[in-house]
Design goal:
444 residues; 13 helices; FAD/NAD(P)-binding domain; alpha/beta; binds flavin-adenine dinucleotide; six-stranded mixed beta sheet
Length: 444
């Protein structure tokens, strides 16, 4: 039986392990440097947006339409086990400004309707937004006065979803080596030139395999030479613990909101069962270049537990929220974090045979929008492993792009590629202090 080693037990790695295990033709092993869900993996969070609104990127729209029934199935499986749902179909409110949809929303609406999902859409003008969602009254008055609700979307509890997939993999006989030196990849095992014959872990052990899949997310460019095709970028998220009116307004019936996302970058979630309200900004992010080769690697709270978010991001959040959800201005930011995207050079995933190392498959380049594909991205990685060509595998094959032509994913078309260097000379690139996260300094 061919043996496949997958390094990385996040969304891409587990999905791949599960897809391979369904064929019963492989011996499948997953290695991860930490227990699953790994505390600093991109996949581990309280919530992520579930949407098939993808502008003109209909590949992802279709992939998400294909993923949705699986998510509903996971909820059923969890209900049978007495566990909370992983997918919350609250709807996603896609807001635009000044009475006209932005291009991204226009294209999404057109493509969703052409795909036969028009019944999921409800369009709202400013008055209708206020009537239905009075919590956005100030936002409407500040120009966010046109929106559509995609009722088929919502959010997933991504950490729980990873746990669920981990369980499914275990039931299928996938084997795991987790945590510490034994679970951490040190290097590829290539005794004969560039032929990958397994991996070497930090404890010095060699693990032989017929194929190796690197599903190490934003750590990937720090692990193997990626010729600038992917880059680790830190993206800021914050959480409030609302009380009083705000708690009622953004309760679990509130939809996920996207505030003209392709232009402002801001999005947010209803308050979860633990009373946490998360808000994020999807933009070109921050870099943490390694000294010896300048490759950006994730800097996370696992190693730097006092890290918060850069001052520049804090200022952006407070400035935006003062007009969008002004009730947050008198609230402390209860938690903040940089979560790391594996940004590809053009915003598309990179799921491909590595051009230099045979038997090495890269399953990365999530570009900040991969979590929703937990149930089905693995089928496409399996296709690459088996050398089966599909529209997806062709789109995500190694692209050899020049850095000068770097692009962001469709939702960040409005953002310039302008990545700050963490803790660089610019004062704005230092981490905000705990005091600066409080309401007292909301107008920094
Ligand atoms: C702030 C933020 C917001 C996001 N919002 C959304 C959203 O709303 N909707 C959406 O669909 N997606 C969203 N995403 C993207 C989504 O989280 C990612 O696409 C997805 O989690 C990528 O999964 P992954 O498996 O590639 O990487 P990860 O989840 O990061 O997993 C990588 C794994 O590799 C392991 N690893 C790394 N190095 C080694 C090593 N040397 N040895 C062994 N193991 C190793 C890590 O421990 C980790 O478990 C968001 C991401 C971020 C950061």
């Amino acid at each position: 039986m061919p043996k496949v080693i997958i390094v990385g037990g996040g969304c891409f790695g587990l999905s791949t392990a599960y897809a391979l295990s369904l064929k019963s033709e492989y011996e499948v092993w997953v290695f991860d440097r930490q227990s699953i869900p790994s505390p600093d993996a991109a996949s581990t969070d309280i919530n992520k947006i579930m949407r098939f609104d993808y502008g003109d990127d209909i590949t992802y729209m279709h992939l998400m339409m294909e993923a949705l029934p699986y998510w509903h199935q996971y909820n059923k499986e969890r209900a049978e086990q007495g566990e909370s749902p992983v997918f919350h179909e609250t709807g996603v409110l896609m807001m635009s400004r000044h009475g006209e949809y932005s291009d991204f929303e226009k294209k999404s609406l057109r493509n969703i309707r052409q795909a036969g999902y028009g019944h999921c859409i409800e369009e709202l003008d400013g008055e209708a937004i206020i009537k239905r969602y009075p919590q956005f009254k100030t936002a409407v008055h500040h120009g966010f006065n046109i929106a559509y609700l995609n009722k088929a979307g919502g959010w997933c509890n991504s950490a729980e979803a990873v746990k669920h997939m981990h369980q499914k993999c275990l039931q299928q006989g996938v084997r795991f080596v987790i945590g510490g030196d034994q679970g951490t990849l040190s290097s590829l095992y290539c005794p004969n030139n560039n032929k990958t014959e397994g991996i070497v872990t930090m404890d010095g052990k060699i693990h032989k395999a017929d194929k190796v899949v690197l599903a190490t997310g934003s750590w990937t460019p720090g692990v193997v030479e990626m010729e600038n095709q992917i880059i680790a970028t830190g993206q800021a998220v914050i959480q409030f613990k609302p009380y009083g009116d705000l708690r009622d307004q953004f309760d679990q019936n509130c939809p996920v909101w996207c505030a003209d996302l392709s232009k402002t970058g801001f999005y947010g979630f209803p308050i979860n069962a633990d009373g946490k309200m998360k808000i994020g900004i999807h933009n070109s992010g921050y870099l943490w270049p390694r000294k010896h080769d300048n490759v950006s690697i994730p800097r996370t709270q696992v190693a730097f537990e006092c890290d918060t978010i850069p001052l520049s991001a804090l200022r952006e959040f407070r400035r935006f929220l003062a007009n969008f959800i002004p009730g947050t201005s008198c609230m402390d930011i209860a938690y903040s974090r940089l979560c790391w995207y594996c940004d590809s050079i053009d915003g598309d995933f990179l799921i491909s045979q590595h051009p230099k190392y045979s038997n090495l498959i890269i399953a990365a380049g999530d570009s900040g929008h991969g979590m929703k594909f937990l149930p089905n991205i693995g089928f496409q990685v399996r296709n690459v492993i088996e050398d089966i060509s599909t529209d997806y595998t062709r789109k995500w094959a190694w692209r050899n792009m020049d850095v000068a032509n770097t692009k962001l994913d469709g939702l960040r078309q409005g953002s310039a590629v302008n990545r700050g260097i963490l803790l660089g000379h610019d004062e704005n690139m230092r981490f905000a202090s705990p005091d600066e996260l409080t309401a007292a300094t909301a107008h920094l």
